[in-house]
## 1
Amino acid sequence: MKIAVVGGTGYVGLTTAVCLAAKGHIVFCVGRNREKIEKIRRGFPVIYERGLKNLLEEVLANRTLKATVNLDKAIQGSDVSFICVGTPCGDDGSIDLTQIRNATKQMGCALRDKVGYHVVVVKSTVVPGTTENVVLPILEKFSGKRAGVDFGICMNPEFLREGRAVDDFMFPRDVGIVIGEFDQKSGDLLSKIYGNFDGEIFRTSIRAAEMIKYARNSYLAKDVSFANEIANVCQRLGVDYLDVKKGMEMDARIGEGRFLDAGAGFGGSCFPKDVSAIVAEAKESGIAPVLLESALKVNEAQPYELVRLTKEVVGNPLKGKRIAVLGLAFKPGTDDMREAPSIKVVNSLLREGCEISVYDNKAVGNAKRIFEDKVEYAEKAEEALRYADACVIVTEWPEFADPKLYTCMRGRVIIDGRRVLNPTTLPPGFTYHAIGFPRAVKT
Ligand code: NAD
């Protein structure tokens, strides 16, 4: 099938475009930034995702992917178009639909001259009612055509996880495929695209599809905040949270594989903004979303737990101490720093008057835009650690799990925000403390 992906320079858009092209479709990857589109044309994905570069090179070589800034031509030449633009939240937490409105308007104009049937698919995360009350009327207004007659419309939430986006998209076995359809014809065409994917397809109403995405993210975010709160209680009561977690997972009703890892809190472009957006929607509709607001509140405070532990071990005030911060991306496997807990940790340590050296192999480019010249950027973990009085592990990149890494440190204090290290494996002379760990130990 011929497909246009609007928002093709973003995490979801580029992954969607490259993966659909790899599945044999002809894909127009549409962006608005010429420089980024030029990079994609030359085989450089503008984001980091494992496996994406190889797959991009493959689909460019076999000519199934064309990167373009010409949205009009892409829509004219395709049967289905996906909207993958950003849906950030505004200052009050509610969803900001500016990118959706602009993209939809452009797509509506392009549809005006389009010959033949076309289905527009909203893949961006949008609050229930957006596809029918915002996207559809804009498309009808600017195309002069009618939904359900001249063009079709679907909502197809995306469940990929950054850090493993390509695998998640290509093999949706664990998450399934949800198709919210305006009518059967629209849903039939979209289902065809997913015909050769190994994942259950669930066809439902557009509003249900929109809500499923929020329900899933809210459910998982609440699990993370639950784990963090219990870990904080464990720490104060002198109990190791890892033992508690293991004991909880023995109960089949709780089960292994749930979001029970405690840490520095959730970040990224989805959980924080999606929970905020559905909280705002719920309030608007007259509901007090107590549980979801609490999940956000716990998460808001969690990064500061690392700063508190640092003070507990290094001493208060921290002024003048040199701290190495390892891991900046909101999770391993990505360069994405949107809402990353590391931002709060670093800024808080800076306010305390610390000197900061940071290291993250993938996210350093994004970090430079955020922290500018306020911190030192190390090219290797050892470089960040060497002259540090203490180090704080914020993101669990696998390289931080090697106890030998820390032997170069001047001040041998480790605050482990993700429980990546087992203190019994550290050489003698270290002080180790962690989230959900009963008390600082000396090795
Ligand atoms: P992003 O900011 O990385 O990407 C959005 C892209 O759209 C940007 O590159 C932007 O330049 C482009 N864009 C905006 N308007 C455009 C236009 N008119 N024409 C062409 N390009 C345009 O955002 P993202 O993380 O990819 O998220 C996109 C959507 O998918 C959001 O709604 C998000 O909630 C949802 N989502 C994200 C993830 C994730 O892990 N990042 C997972 C599932 C769903």
Note: The longest strand covers residues 2-6.
## 2
Amino acid sequence: MTKKIGFLGLGHMGGPMAANLVEAGYDVLAFDPVPAAQEQARKDGATVVDSAVAAVAGRDVVITMLPNGKLVLDVYADLLPAANPGTLFIDCSTIDVADAKAAAARAIDAGQRALDAPVSGGVAGAAAGTLTFMVGGAEADFADALDVLQVMGGKVVHCGGSGVGQAAKICNNMLLGISMIGLSEALVLGEKLGLSHQSFFDVVSTASGQSWALTSYCPVPGPVPTSPANNDYQPGFATALMTKDLGLAANALRDNDVDGQLGMLAAEIYTRFNQSQAGKDFSAIVTDIRDRSDQEDAK
Ligand code: NAD
């Protein structure tokens, strides 16, 4: 029998994810406090209800796609007692590993089941149903969630127990942030030394300094025509979101006593850049490194 779904958080990501579930034939009760999000969900064929609690009544699966961990914990406090016992709660928001573990533990204490299932792939992936899901939780619950996640995703990976899906997400994004900063420093150093962007690309893309940031997402215009650098750094993946994810990574480094100096520094560098350029693609960090280097030069 097709699962009955409650969906909370119909923003940039949750809106299209819920729409894909409706299109695949699932019965979706949806809630978001913002009228424009409600209106769009109605157009997409979801049944929009007027409270979070109303969205979980009689549901088999409850999906949340919310801005932060505090909100997830607050919403769970209301929803867990309102849902049928044994309901599968799937949180797709990107939140602290510690919050994800706490949310799952509270769900299980309340007689429910829980998975953390953050995503990568952005708004385009949400719309196309090609997100990558990184899932943490019990094997049986993962197996039960698979049909629903596969409607919204192109790749679904069970990473381990509760919180380990979030761990995969922040480890990847911490490495991406560090890698983009390192690449940008090397590009600006090359500029100062008279190395053209194309020559840099031709050498480094097949040498030991190669990275996804260079070959798929080159932060300067030219070598990779599809990268945001060729479109005035329109996201893509916005600096605000990279800054958020690096903050979560920094919390996890601290909480777990990891000597993560580059991860901490990357969080600081993006926090500063985010103060003026939150809406630009995160690869625009190269422009900041160049500007700051030029200011040093002028001294
Ligand atoms: P968003 O701000 O567009 O959407 C969040 C939605 O949650 C909003 O519509 C808001 O009104 C709603 N909301 C707030 N309180 C609520 C409540 N009590 N009940 C129901 N809904 C409530 O954010 P987004 O871009 O859709 O991102 C959602 C999550 O996905 C975040 O954790 C983000 O880090 C993560 N994420 C985003 C992207 C991206 O490219 N946007 C990519 C990967 C992961």
Note: The mean pLDDT is 97.
